[in-house]
Amino acid sequence: MDAERISSRKNKYIAHLRALASDADYRYACAEYLCDGIKLLSEALANGAPSMEKMRDQYRRRRDFIVRRFNEMGMECSLPRGTFYAFPKVPDVGMDSMEFAKYILETARVAVVPGSAFGPSGEGFLRASFSTSYENLVEASDRMEKAVAKLK
After folding, report:
1. ∠ CA 123-124-127 to the nearest 5 degrees?
2. Contacts of 110 (CB under 8 A, 6+ apart)
3. What is the rounded distance in angstroms from the CA atom of residue 17 to the CA atom of residue 12?
4. Which of 4, 54, 89, 122 has its CA 20 to 30 A from that of 65?
5. What's the confidence (pLDDT) of residue 50?
6. Does the structure show a pLDDT above 90 at 117?
7. Which of 102, 132, 97, 99 is nearest to 115 (CA)?
8. How many angstroms separate the CA atoms of 126 and 123, rounded?
9. pLDDT tens digits, residue range 76-98?
10. What is residue 121's DSSP assignment?
11. CA 127, CA 117: separation in Å to the nearest integer?
């Protein structure tokens, strides 16, 4: 679908939401919560693109950073798509994902989820969120790197 058609559909949707909110203001008892939500959604659709783009860029920066750092530590990690979780491979240090997650928690004071929590196919991996600040990611990855280096 081309950008012009998407924009046209978005504008029609915004107009319908605004009409619905205006109509609901007068027709329904206690509709103010619904109306407020519709008005906020309408505003976000109409004017929220710059904020959304800024947030997307911040998450991309965090994602690229943490994936690079995992790979530098020898924890093979691919770029995730559409999520704020990385799924790095546990390094070959003789530990399963649960043991390694506990080691990282105790040694580096960084919480990660063992891949085994997601079923047998997750064994050998960790899930790590990058939904925190960039500065926290730098600190956590530095601590993890030191902990992993102790095992080699």
Report:
1. 85
2. 104, 140, 143, 144, 147
3. 9
4. 122
5. 84
6. yes
7. 97
8. 8
9. 999 998 899 999 999 999 999 99
10. G
11. 9
By the 10 Å C-beta count (0-12 exposed, 13-18 middle, 19+ buried), 13 is classed as: middle
- Token pair, residue 65, equals 């950073």
Reduced to 3 states (helix: H, G, I; strand: E, B; else coil), residue 125 is strand
pTM of the model: 0.71
Contact assessment for residue 13 and residue 45, using Cβ atoms and an 8 Å cutoff: yes
For the chain, the first-to-last Cα distance in angstroms comes to 51
Residue 33 class from Cβ within 10 Å (0-12 exposed, 13-18 middle, 19+ buried)?
A: exposed
Quick one: pLDDT at residue 51?
Answer: 84
Interatomic CA distance for residues 64 and 17, integer angstroms: 37
* Each residue's pLDDT tens digit, 13-38: 666 666 655 554 455 545 555 567 67
3-state secondary structure of 86: strand
